[in-house]
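A.,

Following up on our hallway conversation. Structure tokens first:
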């Protein structure tokens, strides 16, 4: 039989074909994403119970889910805070208590001393040794053979109205059909399976639904069993292949060719008050070479806070402009976009370049005029927020799009942007900058469609920030510290954070704090900036702080990005335990930009959780954004780190980027090998990403 017909049949046999599945159950199954037999086969157990052997009571540990067997010694009604039935049973090695809060008279009468019981349940610590609450149990009689289960019992993810026995029966029916059909189609070439010592897909699936008695439960619960790794491998491969395909589709489009040599760049570099670091030079060359090619660039530039990504971006925009194209620079927040506007205007206007601005707040006539200049080609560079995506925005000759802080934009947006542009049917080049260093393993898998450059060097003269943890019970001392620093001519930030994602509340907190500090520190000039202020007001406060007309700036997390005041050498962050490590690192990057030693005080609210303490310790111990990102990844998971949780891109069924990181190198290599097998590639992508893969076609 043709194998692809088999695969078809499995994912085309609806669950309603199975015994006992009517319309009502089918509807419930659909909630779990289970519509056909292939769905069921890939619906893997969450964990397993070992009902295959009887555990001696003397060996039990709290939390064990086990079968025990023993003789009833006593059975009493206990009138505590809650009435309960307490049944003591023992075997040769020890004794435990069974406890029932709901029970019938018949039940009570049947548990007579001397009878033998077999029970299944979870051992927990009780007032008098280990207890089992409401165990499953039955009486053992001499005639009965010791009928234990023959394989481990899978526990499936389920939903209301679908019992475990029900879902177990559906999965085993699906497995029987799988067996009759001779397995699920293997799309990985056997050379690849051998090379990476992978079992076949059918073996892996069968094993995970029905692990044998001697399976290593510990390994399974850690999800490091070869069967799980086999599936994780294929899933990661599917994602990787889909990104590669996306990239290939992208590369088929043309793009404007921009000559590398360009006098504007020379002029710009001459007017800069510093020379580029080696890393900036290297990355600038990589970008410049991409722009000179007739295929659209898709390049990610990573660099720690303060590594000087903006200059590299500016050089790219100059190459576009110098070759007669427009460039757009997009930032995720208005305040960051404003900072870019300041920087780019300062650098580019002296070169005679027309810089324009488009953000959500720009309305009416001003907006219409800006749109007109963009469409006519009068604006050569446009800085803005996601307002640049809007339908009525037209460019005349858009050749380059720079996206800052890419991880906050979804993949959708990244791809939608390219639709905006282009000249003569081609696509604009894209330069994506991220200030959150992305762990290498993630880059390899999540950004397989991008080329990657790393600015791994900070400009000379930066001093590392000294970070300390202080409980907010010592707030007085922290305030004193601000007084001393400012009286010595330095400046400080005081950052307010809130646990809720409410900008309004965060702004209120900042206002209250600013009032407090004004009273406590009457000799200091205290300013306030938060996200709800008008752009002009914010800009005014920022400018005053930069000009040292303010000593202390109270702010919400809006200052995270973009602010650059070298004389500010002290930062207080309230309740740092509420923020992600990457965000803390960003904030802290606002100090340590001058030559004096800088300090960051993380003023936490005691008591910290174990995890909270561990996280803040990372901040104290390192200034290295990559190390912090790795830790963040470990603690919060890739979805949070990349900000892509909602986009669906990072949702894996089996794989886990952290746990399976060691597979990624092999996956990448395998993806290369699969390039010559387009049919298998398609099938694997379809199998694992199925309907969810539509993002690839945005
Ligand atoms: P980030 O990578 O965090 O976006 P920026 O581009 O904002 O960093 O640069 C941070 C600061 O360092 C800016 O004030 C910028 O002008 C300055 N800077 C950039 N490159 C250099 C350099 N090679 N030497 C000295 N200062 C630099
Ligand atoms: Mg930046």
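Then the amino acids I'd put at each of the 698 positions:
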């Amino acid at each position: 039989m043709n194998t692809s017909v088999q695969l078809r049949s499995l994912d085309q046999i609806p669950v309603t074909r199975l015994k006992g599945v009517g319309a009502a159950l089918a509807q419930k199954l659909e909630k779990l994403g289970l519509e056909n037999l292939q769905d069921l086969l890939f619906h893997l157990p969450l964990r397993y119970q070992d009902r295959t052997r009887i555990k001696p009571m003397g060996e039990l540990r709290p939390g064990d889910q086990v079968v025990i067997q023993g003789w009833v010694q006593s059975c009493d009604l206990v009138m505590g805070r809650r009435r309960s039935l307490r049944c003591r049973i023992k075997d040769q090695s020890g004794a435990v208590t069974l406890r029932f809060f709901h029970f019938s008279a018949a039940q009570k009468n049947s548990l007579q001393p001397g009878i033998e019981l077999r029970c299944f349940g979870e051992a927990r610590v009780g007032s008098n040794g280990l207890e089992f609450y409401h165990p499953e149990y039955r009486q053992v009689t001499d005639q009965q053979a010791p009928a234990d289960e023959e394989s481990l019992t899978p526990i499936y993810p389920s939903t209301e109205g679908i019992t475990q026995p029900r879902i177990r029966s559906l999965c085993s029916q699906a497995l029987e059909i799988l067996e009759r059909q001779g397995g699920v189609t293997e799309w990985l070439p056997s050379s690849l399976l051998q090379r990476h010592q992978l079992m076949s897909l059918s073996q892996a699936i069968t094993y995970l639904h029905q692990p044998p008695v001697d399976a290593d439960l510990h390994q399974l619960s850690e999800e490091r069993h070869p069967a799980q790794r086999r599936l994780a491998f294929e899933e990661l491969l599917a994602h990787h292949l889909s990104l590669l395909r996306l990239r290939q589709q992208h590369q088929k489009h043309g793009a404007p060719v921009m000559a590398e040599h360009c006098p504007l760049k020379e002029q710009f570099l001459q007017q800069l008050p510093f020379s580029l670091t080696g890393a900036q030079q290297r990355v600038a060359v990589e970008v410049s070479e991409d722009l000179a090619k007739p295929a659209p660039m898709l390049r990610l530039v990573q660099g720690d806070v303060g590594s000087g990504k903006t200059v590299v971006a500016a050089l790219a925009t100059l190459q576009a402009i110098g070759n007669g194209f427009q460039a757009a620079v997009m930032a995720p927040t208005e305040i960051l976009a404003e900072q870019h506007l300041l920087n780019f205007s300062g650098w580019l206007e002296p070169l005679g370049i027309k810089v324009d601005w488009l953000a959500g707040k720009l309305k009416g006539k001003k907006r219409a005029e800006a749109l007109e200049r963009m469409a006519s080609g009068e604006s050569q560079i446009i800085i803005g927020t996601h307002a640049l995506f809007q339908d009525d925005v037209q460019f005349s000759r858009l050749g380059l799009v720079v996206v800052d802080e890419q991880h906050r934009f979804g993949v959708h947006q990244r791809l939608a942007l390219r639709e905006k542009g282009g000249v003569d049917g081609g696509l604009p080049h894209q330069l994506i900058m991220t200030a959150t260093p992305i762990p290498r393993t993630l880059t390899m898998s999540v950004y397989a469609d991008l080329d990657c450059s790393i600015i791994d060097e900070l400009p000379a003269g930066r001093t590392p920030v000294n970070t300390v943890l202080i409980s907010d019970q010592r707030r007085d001392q922290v305030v004193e510290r601000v007084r001393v620093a400012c009286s010595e001519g330095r400046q400080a930030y005081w950052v307010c954070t809130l646990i809720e994602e409410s900008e309004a509340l965060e702004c209120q907190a900042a206002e209250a704090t600013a009032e407090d500090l004004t009273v406590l520190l009457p000799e200091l000039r205290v300013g306030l900036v938060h996200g709800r202020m008008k752009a002009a007001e914010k800009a005014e406060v920022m400018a005053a702080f930069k000009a040292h007309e303010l000593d202390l700036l109270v702010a919400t997390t809006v200052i995270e990005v973009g602010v650059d005041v070298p004389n500010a050498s002290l930062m207080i962050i309230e309740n740092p335990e509420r923020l992600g490590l990457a965000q803390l690192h960003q904030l802290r990057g606002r100090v340590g930009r001058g030559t004096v030693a800088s300090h960051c005080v993380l003023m936490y609210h005691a008591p910290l959780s174990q995890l909270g303490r561990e996280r803040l310790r990372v901040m104290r111990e390192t200034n290295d954004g990559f190390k912090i990102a790795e830790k963040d990844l470990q603690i919060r998971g890739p979805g949070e780190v990349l900000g892509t949780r909602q986009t669906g891109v990072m949702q894996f069924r089996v794989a886990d980027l952290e746990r399976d990181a060691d597979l990624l190198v092999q996956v990448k290599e395998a993806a290369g090998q699969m390039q010559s097998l387009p049919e298998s590639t398609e099938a694997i992508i379809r199998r694992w990403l199925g309907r969810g893969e539509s993002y690839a076609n945005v």
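The radius of gyration is 31 Å. Curious whether your intuition agrees with the design.

B.
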